[in-house]
Amino acid sequence: MKTILNFFKKIINPARNEAEPDAVPAVNAPAVRIYARAEHNISRSQISENALKVLYRLQKSGFQAYLVGGCVRDLLLGREPKDFDVVTDADPEQIRKIFRNCRIIGRRFRLAHVHFGREIIEVATFRGAGDAQDDKQVLSKEGRLLRDNVYGTIEEDVWRRDFTVNALYYNIKDFSVVDYTGGMDDHKTGTLRLIGDPETRFREDPVRMLRAVRFAVKLGFNLDPACEKPIHELAELLYGIPAARLYDEALKLFLSGYALQTFEMLRHYGLFQILFPDTESSLALEEEGFPKLFLVKALENSDNRIAEGKTVTAYFLWSAFLWEPVAIRAKEKIARGMAESMAYQEAANEVVSRQNSSTSLPRHITMSMREVWTLQPKFNMRIGSKPSRLLTHPRFRAAYDFLVLRAETGGADPELPTWWARYQEADETEQRKMTRPPRGVKTGKAKRKRTYRKKPAAQDKSV
Ligand code: ATP
Ligand code: MG
Predict the structure, then answer these.
(1) Confidence band (pLDDT; 50, 70, 90) for 125?
(2) With DSSP H G I counted as helix, E B as strand and the rest as coil, what are the percentages for the chain, rounded to 5?
(3) Would you state the pLDDT for residue 410?
(4) pTM for this one?
(5) Nearest-ligand number for the alpha carbon of 207
């Protein structure tokens, strides 16, 4: 209880804590700066029509209504926001009464989703600072926020947000931007700064360490040195986060078009090893730089695809992250006498089940990953009917792209993808020619035929 009270004293009234000049100001005396319409570059024409409808409707019903978070940050940077989040003083029940097309979601903190066809506008009620004694906000012994379901005012809501640039509010009433935390200045200098004492805020929610990397890379901002400092030491707190949440966060980290930079930065702060422990160990076993090169190439390739507007899939990227661990295990099994295809299957199972405890993967993703991996040794089989069967496999394209990456980084014979490229282009006659066994080489199929013919003859004799 004492820790909880101290925490709130620190968050709510850091004036008592003179050693922390950056700490959060008292809630009842916020130093707010209002940037009038003429002082910022957000214009309504950049805002989704549906988000505007929601804002205006809330306002007409007598409530406050603001855009907040990533959309305000991105609009200020002249970027197109991924989505638009609205915040209001109406509670979820009141929001539901205003919008027919609305669903209330969330257990930890209830909020409303207003549906417009495929677009969803998320409408949240201001979060309150809460009162430790009312038991609605609870901290774990590491300082993690376990429950956080108190409604409040904008002055309280702002201090619960993570970074200053994520805590700017666009007010639909007068089109101004409301800034309690110095977010506008940080915007100008390109600084990603946590609100309040960094260590406390990371302990409250360790995922903020991953978010720090994600935003620093995505926005091209510098991480404030005070935020940067405790990350190494606190990284292990991420072990306490459910693997499903880490998977969602890892998807955002690696599928946003900055996978390579994100990977480098996560490694720099000691965060990568928590998301991908087996990959990190395999990176230490570099053979002439090849394993690392392969992953780097895969990440670079994925970023390029996103830049070209092509799709990227989670399973392809996760296959790349975990390929080295799978290949290392498979090789060990083959050396112990296991058949190649069995060795890859077993290695894949082991690696996937270990990875599931770090970032828990949906089943359809692990199935596709297994296919990409177990098809790799099959590319070596270029004689007889196997190539034509491989070509019709639903995962052929992904497995082939994977092979290309391996070959480019020294992990497979560079001849192989060239042969397969030719084979894919060839007509049937040419394909048959390409897969014909060289003279004197007996294929498995021919052998099977002979044994089949001999057997009935032997039976005939005995009758
Ligand atoms: P993106 O462009 O990736 O959606 P975002 O900033 O909108 O970035 P969200 O995860 O959508 O990120 O969250 C919306 C807002 O909610 C954030 O800008 C931030 O103000 C607040 N927020 C989200 N997650 C946290 C967190 N873990 N701790 C504190 N505040 C958070
Ligand atoms: Mg968002």
Answers:
(1) very high
(2) 55, 10, 30
(3) 86
(4) 0.84
(5) 1
